[in-house]
């Protein structure tokens, strides 16, 4: 009898940590660093100041690369900095002058494939005037091998008005978003997220959809886009379809929010989602939240989990967070696009206030707590 009890006790002891490890979710986090990056020298041209409106970020090979949805002076709107041992080297910026990157407009998000072999970049797809070729560059997904950053290709390429772009995807995205209000698909929508997940799937994150750019609703929708790879060429491999939608109902969220970035975390096998709000043109009127969504919950269409601090209050970014990238199992790097909001000189509460210059991008490093 004593031996039986001992065996049961040992079994419980051995099983318990495994069970806890299986069900444990890293959803408690803290902000460990808030900082600023000089995207370029403070620049004014023809009386107009250049703003760094950083909207995308990617980490690979010990580098942080950020992109802006507005032009940089002289260079493509991307800048890369060394990032080693969780330390960002702000003393040397590397710029990009590839013709493909110079020609696109309104970059919104990056992603890296789970095997770390390819990087994708998407624009907003939020405008197309068939009478003007100027809007074509707003409709692009580019990709390149991580070991050959100059070998940039256009995903789902087509040439319109002698301009190579991914504009052909726009009708497919609209069709995927069709619903009772827009049976043929919305005329207006805005892509703000892209994530590559296992199974050769690109996930597009939709922030806005409606009749026009000034008549829309915020949304949180994910569109799955299958692809295949052959000889370093990546091609569309099936239909696009909405695979996930989330309508926030938690009491922690007091404002209308829309999706602002997504990324896949291969360490924890889950998606990160950033959602942001814009209630005015001051630092206290904008902000963002972070959510986690396990692949299992994504497939089962379960709600994501709001990331909270140790005191169980929602982790709130003072800035309008617009890009997220994974550093390691416990660390993510978030970049912010505050548009032209510069904040204030004296910050007394960094959770809801900030200060920056027009040529600067604000960033936040978030650490998850293993409890």
Beta-strand share of residues: 35-45%
Report the C-alpha radius of gyration, rounded. 21 Å
* N-to-C CA distance: 37 Å
User: How many DSSP H or I helices?
Assistant: 4
Chain-averaged pLDDT: 92
Q: The biggest beta sheet, please? A: 5 strands, antiparallel
Oligomer status? single chain
Determine the fraction of residues in helical runs and give it as a percent range: 10-25%
Number of strands: 27
Q: What would CATH call the architecture?
A: 6 Propeller
Alpha-beta content class: mainly beta
Give me the secondary-structure topology:
Layout: H1 2-23, E1 29-38, E2 44-45, E3 48-49, E4 54-60, E5 63-68, E6 78-84, E7 87-88, E8 94-95, H2 99-103, E9 107-112, E10 118-123, E11 141-145, E12 153-154, E13 158-160, E14 163-165, H3 169-176, E15 188-197, E16 201-212, E17 215-230, E18 233-236, E19 241-245, E20 258-265, E21 270-278, E22 286-294, H4 295-299, E23 305-306, E24 316-317, E25 321-328, E26 331-336, E27 360-368
């Amino acid at each position: 009898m004593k031996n039986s009890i001992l065996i049961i006790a040992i079994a419980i002891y051995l099983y318990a940590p495994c069970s806890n490890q299986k069900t444990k979710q890293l959803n408690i986090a803290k902000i460990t660093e808030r900082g600023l990056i000089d995207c370029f020298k403070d620049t004014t041209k023809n009386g107009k100041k250049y703003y760094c409106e950083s909207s995308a970020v990617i980490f690979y090979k010990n580098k942080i690369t950020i992109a802006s949805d507005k032009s940089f002076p002289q260079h493509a709107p991307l800048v890369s900095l060394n990032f080693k041992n969780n330390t960002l080297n702000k003393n040397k910026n590397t710029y990009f002058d590839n013709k493909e990157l110079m020609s696109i407009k309104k970059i919104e998000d990056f992603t890296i494939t789970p095997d770390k072999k390819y990087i994708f970049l998407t624009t907003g797809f939020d405008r197309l005037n068939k009478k003007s070729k100027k809007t074509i560059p707003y409709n692009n997904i580019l990709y390149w091998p991580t070991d050959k950053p100059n070998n940039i290709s256009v995903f789902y390429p087509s040439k319109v008005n002698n301009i190579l772009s991914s504009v052909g995807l726009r009708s497919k995205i609209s069709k995927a978003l069709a619903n009772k209000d827009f049976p043929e698909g919305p005329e207006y929508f805005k892509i703000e997220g892209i994530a590559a997940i296992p199974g050769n799937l690109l996930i597009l994150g939709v922030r806005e959809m409606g009749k026009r750019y000034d008549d829309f609703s915020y949304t949180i929708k994910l569109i799955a886009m299958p692809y295949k790879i052959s000889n370093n060429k990546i091609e569309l491999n099936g239909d696009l379809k909405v695979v996930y939608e989330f309508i926030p109902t938690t009491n922690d969220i007091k404002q209308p929010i829309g999706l602002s970035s997504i990324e896949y975390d291969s360490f924890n096998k889950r998606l990160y989602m950033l959602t942001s709000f814009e209630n005015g043109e001051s630092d206290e009127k904008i902000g963002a939240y972070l959510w986690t969504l396990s692949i299992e919950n994504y497939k089962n269409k379960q709600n994501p989990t709001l990331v909270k601090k140790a005191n169980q209050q929602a982790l709130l970014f003072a800035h309008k967070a617009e890009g997220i990238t994974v550093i390691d199992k416990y660390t993510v790097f978030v970049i912010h696009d505050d548009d032209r909001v510069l904040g204030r000189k004296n910050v007394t509460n960094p959770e809801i206030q900030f200060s920056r210059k027009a040529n600067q991008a604000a960033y936040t490093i978030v650490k998850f707590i293993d409890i």
